[in-house]
Amino acid sequence: MADAPQLLLGALLFLLPAALILLLRARGKRPRLPPGPPSLPLLGSVVWLTNSPAAIEPLLRKLFARHGPVVALRIGSSRLSVFVSDRRLAHAALVERGAALAHRPALASVALLGENANTITRASYGPVWRLLRRNLVAETLHPSRVKLFAPARAWVRRVLAEKLAAAPPAGGGPVVDTFQYAMFCLLVLMCFGERLDEPAVRAIAAAQREALIYRSKNMPVFAFFPAVTKRLFRSRLDKARALRRRVTEIFLPLIDARREYKNKNRNGGGEAKKKEETTFEHSYVDTLLDIKLHDEDDGGERSLTDDEIVVLCSEFLDAGTDTTSTGLQWMMAELVKNPSIQEKLHSEIKATTGDDQEEVSEEDVHRMPYLKAVVLEGLRKHPPAHFVLPHMAAEDMEVGGYTIPKGTTVNFMVAEMGRDEREWENAMEFSPERFLPGGDGEGVDVTGTKAIRMMPFGVGRRICAGLGVAMLHLEYFVANMVREFEWQEVAGHEVDFAEKNEFTVVMKKPLRPRLVPRRPRSSTATQ
Fold first, then answer.
1. Which CDD domains match (predicted)?
2. Per-residue confidence at 46, pLDDT binned at 50, 70, 90?
3. Which CATH number covers residue 266?
4. Could you report the per-residue pLDDT of 473-493, keeping only the tens digit for each?
5. How many domains in the chain?
6. Bind-site residues for heme
7. Which residues are annotated as a binding site?
């Protein structure tokens, strides 16, 4: 028995290397997650102790500089969020393996508010999303449908010109409010098929914006421990519900009026009905009233509820108003700051349109390469959104050599890609010429199908459905505003490109230019 300790020691010495080998192999099989700051139980990444989730972009820039183009943050006890800043990795993930990232993560705030997630931006990748998106693209945003709203765009152009012309002669008045109002006029008409008067449009705009801004600023807190935060911040949920009820109260009469209009035409056996001057023959609501969803209760089909239609109308207005008005403000600010570029654009407009034309037509803008270059450069340098809407991994996948576990939220840095000094020459300089032949942006495809250089509308299967109409609106209104006015900088209100996060990334100090008419005013806008 005296040899027992020696035998035990020998056995341990023999087994220890084997145990170490097994341990190393087990560690080697663990998924290699993207790097990021350490996490604490329940809290998540420790950076939340000193950083606000609302100011995530500067934090991410520091993390990218330290760890590379793929980083991870943990929100709460389990939710992992991955952020990608490299355009090639974005293309591999969103285009080459698009189906794996076509889902959207569930938002705790939506569930807490009891809202339906059946919208184009929030719905999971599946039959409901495909139906809603196909309806929007085919029935409202298809070029043949968009053309039906050409008279509406011409009316809004006149409204915009009238409002801008009424600004103080010495300049210095903010123009972003005018841009927002004009875009609401257009999108409200496209949505509800009715040209409303100014008080009605402003009531819709106020209700929509207040609800949107409130939610974007106050709802992210519910991503942290919703079981706890729903009690700590109950007043925020109550306020959000009240703001949603206000929107519903405004929208329902408009939806009911459109339902009645459709029923009258249908009951008339297809005969054309005499319409009011302010009523359009087509609207987004028309298409929503015709949609049939699969009813999971009885296996049949059902129409959308009024609440579902209200949420889809809100989505339609949000997607097309703030983003476009924000883009317009940034582009006009660059033209104010760069008068030589503005004059070059004006020269192209004069060469393309006749002096006797009332407007730069939609056909005209398609024949203006420098105009398109100005708009693309504005979207590259100043994308209205600096992130895409978040994606969710439907399966375990690899991005940049790292494992992205199923269920992980994945987002992509839109502004970082468009401003990457390694990809763009003098990236922070506003130079539309880069998108002309010979420039470093020549032939850029904003859909990112073949390669991503910039992605202001996202890319892949969840690319913005309104890309085409957004480009049309930006080109059309920029061209007409430059044709009508010379945009000048005002002493004391110099252009400042500092940014501020709202629903979109806006100018911290709104643009306040002097507008000098280039030609006599001859047309008036009627409400």
1. CYP77_89 (cd11075)
2. confident
3. 1.10.630.10
4. 999 999 999 999 999 999 999
5. 1
6. 464
7. 464
